[in-house]
Amino acid sequence: MTSEIRQLLRSAKVFHPDLPDFDTDAAPDEPMTLFVEWLTAAIDGGVGQPHAMTLSTSDRAGAVTARTLLLKDVDDAFWFATSSLSPKGRQLRENPRVALTLFWREQGRQIRICGEASPGPRDVSTADFTARHPDSRAVAIAMPQSSPVDDPAAADAALDAAKTRIADDDEFAPDDWTAFRVAPMQVEFWQATTGRDQVRLRYDRTDPSSWAKSVLWP
Ligand SMILES: Cc1cc2nc3c(=O)[nH]c(=O)nc-3n(C[C@H](O)[C@H](O)[C@H](O)COP(=O)(O)O)c2cc1C
To answer: Does 69 contact ligand 1 (Cβ within 6 A)?
Structure first.
């Protein structure tokens, strides 16, 4: 059985042969410009859910967990939004150092980001929340994120009450909904090729406004 699975995995398709080029000599001096270039190419190229990224966090004891979130904005930081009362919200308070990973399979591209997460201004969190679909807002306020549903009837009642609350006040945003910014310390761009010689470029922050670039062996 195990070897059948191994065979299945070995025969799984890898990348489409028509992959974009990545000329590391032409890369900008800082990573945010390149990130936006790659993100734009992913959106223009029809990559599925290009804004889905893995957020990895760890608690005080070093236990790591990861989950998918949506990238909400990029300026000098990478933004996501979630409940500060969720397990990840607790972990972010215990250890703000996080990793973000984006994988755009259609273009054979991966971006790895390490940095420090901090809550953004309240008005950014409120604007993020009120821009969400009313049903998503109701789900977010009905019960704490990731809490066990021990009583489905009570959960349904809480959801109905939350829907009414949202319908009554379109501007309502709960205090725990938080837009977090991840200030990057390291960003790595990885490009698959048709051969086996993937191209990797890493940016390391050397001071608040400058970055060192290194091409990495695949
Ligand atoms: C494609 C996708 C996008 C998601 N986007 C978000 C998001 O933007 N914010 C969020 O809180 N959870 C999002 N989730 C759900 C999270 O993966 C996760 O289940 C939830 O945040 C609870 O995580 P926690 O228990 O580690 O706190 C998304 C899941 C998927 C698959």
So the answer is: yes
9 belongs to a structural domain: no
Domain count, the chain: 1
pTM of the model: 0.95
Per-residue pLDDT of the chain (218 residues; tens, 9 = 90+): 568 999 999 999 888 888 999 999 999 999 999 999 999 999 999 999 999 999 999 999 999 999 999 999 999 999 999 999 999 999 999 999 999 999 999 999 999 999 999 999 999 999 999 999 999 999 999 999 999 999 999 999 999 999 999 999 999 999 999 999 999 999 999 999 988 789 999 999 999 999 999 999 99
Ligand 1 centre to CA of 148 (Å) is 15
* Contact of 65 with 82, CB cutoff 8 Å: no
